[in-house]
Design brief:
heterodimer; A: alpha+beta; Arc Repressor Mutant, subunit A; 4 helices; B: mainly alpha; about 0% strand; globular
């Protein structure tokens, strides 16, 4: 199986959140196919970048922010841009 | 007040051509810089950051280039070194040189940063740009100036070819355009510093420079929509 790049992992986590509104962190970790350590790293990064946020609804749930939606929308554009300009 | 000399040798390209030339390149560079803002803000990808910085510096460099051309006309001199060191023309020349060198270095760094993860490398480029700018501003020796740019160009070509060879994306030929943009920026700088050397080819240099910037602008707009 091909190793996923940073942006692909970010996109995968965001897609899981998008397709599962109000998902909790434990099922999100399970579905992301990452080790706990790497998940914490990526999840923390997404929180810091303001792409997801935590809400208190019968426990801590994760929701996608507008920036998260925008990232998913522009994901392919970002990848193609990096590839085209050899960045 | 010094007289205006609108018909000297410096005006081989004409004031209208000079204005249009600078305007097109500055606008292209700024559109690339601001057009890629959203991509950078979403991704925080360092390669995009350095690429954008390169075009911001290109815009600054070409702004000061046209300002120097105006000063040359206004004071009726042929070379910026004739302004004298105490004159603010020297400061303008220093800023032009610094911005031009940094534009090239940021373009280079946008390709290199993945291989040389050391983020302090950019400070070395800043130092190099200051040294190049100081040499060019303080010395009016044609051979020294040409030597500095020949060395710089060799360095850029060698690093960009090596970076491309070790790149995973062998299909991209952007490094050729980056080398050409660097080469033509250097020719633009030489055109300012030693005007007589390239006077015959001035319009050709302008046309190729504009084509290169328009090519990159077209590629950027095609990608970001």
């Amino acid at each position: 199986m091909k190793k996923r790049g940073k942006f692909e992992i970010m996109k995968d986590i965001l897609e899981i959140v998008q397709n599962n509104p109000n998902i909790k962190t434990t099922p999100l970790l399970r579905r992301s196919n990452l080790s706990t350590l790497r998940f914490k790293q990526y999840y923390g990064d997404l929180l810091k970048k303001g792409m997801v946020l935590e809400e208190e609804k019968k426990g801590k749930t994760v929701v996608l922010t507008e920036k998260g939606f925008k990232f998913l929308d522009k994901y392919r554009t970002i990848l193609n841009f990096i590839e085209e300009f050899d960045l | 007040m010094p007289p205006m000399h609108f018909s000297g040798q410096m005006m081989s390209a004409g004031i209208g051509t000079e204005l249009i030339y600078s305007f097109v390149i500055i606008v292209c560079s700024l559109l690339i810089y601001f057009g890629t803002k959203e991509l950078y803000e979403l991704s925080k990808y360092r390669g995009i950051k350095y690429f954008r910085e390169a075009f911001l510096f290109f815009a600054i460099a070409f702004f000061f280039r046209s300002f120097i051309k105006f000063l040359l006309m206004f004071f009726g001199v042929t070379r910026p070194h004739e302004f004298g060191l105490m004159h603010f023309g020297a400061v303008t020349l220093f800023i032009f040189m610094f911005a031009g060198s940094m534009a090239i270095f940021y373009l280079l760094y946008s390709m290199l940063w993945k291989k040389w993860r050391n983020s302090k490398l950019i400070y070395l480029f800043y130092l190099l740009a200051i040294i190049i700018s100081a040499i060019v501003t303080l010395s009016s020796n044609t051979f020294l100036i040409l030597g500095v740019f020949l060395l710089l160009l060799t360095f850029i070509i060698a690093i960009m070819v090596l970076a491309h060879k070790s790149s995973r994306n062998k299909k991209s030929n952007m490094y050729v355009i980056y080398i050409l943009i660097s080469l033509f920026l250097i020719l633009n700088i030489i055109d300012i510093l030693i005007p007589k050397l390239l006077q015959l080819y001035q319009i050709l240099i302008y046309l190729i420079s504009i084509s290169l910037f328009l090519t990159i602008f077209y590629k950027v707009t095609k990608r970001i929509g």
